[in-house]
Amino acid sequence: MRFKWILFVAARYIFHPQKKSPSPVLSILGIGTGVFALIVILAVMNGFQLGFIESILEISSYHLRVGSLPHEQTEEGRSLLLTVPGIEAAVPFREFQALARGRREGQHAAIVRGLPVDAPSMDPSMASRLEFEQGFFDLAAGESALLGTEMARRLGVKAGDEITVFSIPSIFNAIGASSAENNENGGLRVFTVTGIFRTGYYECDTSWVFINIDSAASFSEMNPVLGIKLNNRFHDRQTLELVRKSFAEKQGFDSAVFSSWRDYNRSFFGALRTEKLFMFILVGLIFIVVGLNIYQAQRRAVLEHREEIGLLRAVGGGEQAVRLVFVCDGAIIGFTGAVSGLVLGLLVASNIPVFFDIIENIVNFAINIINTIAGYFEAGDFGDFYFFSPAVFYIKEIPSRIIPREAFIVFMFGFLSALLAAWFASYKVTRIRPAEVLRYE
To answer: ∠ CA 429-316-327 to the nearest 5 degrees?
Structure first.
């Protein structure tokens, strides 16, 4: 019963029809804007970052690797890995650096990876990341090759054309040797392009070439590496211990070398994490500014309702109860603003491409009107407007990824900033003496 009158008085101070102060409305708008902006910005940043990370881990780096296995034990090692809980796929591959030449003059550096013919069935997650613009995944023929879209563009080739691959280690080995001797050593081979893929990650599309794993053996004497995919890449440490234990119990696997995705690309992933942290802090300053505004507004509200506070204290309202009235004001402002910002932020973040299309259509409609008017005066013609033109940016649309945990943290930031501001502002209530206030009434 006691808490009901506190809520009643708090709601009356905010929603009373005769109340002239716009402070609560502005405070709600401030909290809502901060929550909305932070959710949308984090969703877009997550879309870009997770897209890059998943392209690296699903296509090039894998989650775990087991290397230095003898060639004849590769298949046995793969079978052993598939028995370990948490492992989704295991794929043997060979990898080396090379120069690739197409129809155009000049060469382009490439990372060549030899994969089994049935790699898509071995690793469905990798296959799902490869969007083939020409051809398809076909390494059945020993002289087949798959190129990224940017690599194909730079070499000036399409599906069905031939490229020449010259391994970089062979360049040094071939110093002083004749061209014929170099060809016999397998350092130079011609491949037919059977597919051109796009991953959406520029580094992969501009430098990767996939060939048959048996063909890759002729370029490098290094033993195959086993790339491992996990059900959850964040369980890599636990799974790595299980893999080590499984290999330790088998004879002949003493030379195996193990590594996790945390070991390679460490600097790149660390940079992405730091970037996100600083963006979170910078945009979070919105809540500090709004919190200070709420603090000042609540302090002013305490002074404006000084007589009412004295009356409430005089009729039995305790110091903490009256103080709670203004804390509830802050809670109502924070909750209303945070909920409205959360709902609107989730709506926009879930439909980022749609909203960008709407804005582009509105701007292009205005440009068409200007062009029509300018046509009567024989003025120049303005082109169409695009936020991210394919001629400039290597993306087709703005990616967005909402992480529920982060959305909840943002919501709590907005709510707590208003609540804490109101709590500190309400301290002024404790300095009001009912007798002094009512003496002059």
So the answer is: 35
> What distances in angstroms separate CA 440 from CA 111, 301, 311, 342, 436, one per listed residue?
86, 20, 12, 47, 7
**Same-domain check for residues 299 and 351:** yes
* Cα 374 from chain centroid (whole Å): 43
Backbone phi, then psi, for 88, in 5-degree steps?
A: -95, -35
Phi-psi region of 62 (alpha: psi -120 to 50; beta: other; left: phi over 0): left
- Rounded to the nearest angstrom, the gap between the alpha carbon of residue 233 and the centroid of all alpha carbons in its chain is 15
Q: Which of 249-258, 384-393, 408-417 has the lowest mean pLDDT?
A: 384-393
CB atoms closer than 10 angstroms to residue 205: 21
* Residue corresponding to tokens 């008017």: 373
Angstrom distance (rounded) from CA 276 to CA 270: 10
Amino acid letter for position 128: S
Query: For 178, phi and psi rounded to 5 degrees?
Result: -75, 165
Let me know whether 256 and 328 are in one domain: no
Helical (H) or strand (E) element with 350: helix 319-350
Residue 58 lies in a domain: no
Beta carbons of 419 and 326 less than 8 angstroms apart: no
**Is residue 305's pLDDT more than 90?**
no
Q: pTM higher than 0.70, yes or no?
A: yes
Q: In sequence order, what are the residues at sequence separation of 6 or more whose Cβ sits closer than 8 angstroms to the Cβ of residue 401?
A: 43, 46, 47, 50, 51
Of the candidates 260, 281, 299, which is a domain's last residue? 260
Structure tokens that stand for 68 in this block:
């230095």
Angle at 395 between CA 391 and CA 398, to 5 degrees: 125
Q: Write out the residue range of the structural domain in which residue 407 sits.
A: 2-52+269-439
Contact 301, 23 (CB under 8 A): yes
Whether residue 366 is found in the same domain as residue 237 = no
126-152: per-residue pLDDT in tens?
Answer: 888 888 999 999 998 888 999 999 899
pLDDT band, residue 1 (cuts 50/70/90): very low
Domain identity same for 254 and 286: no
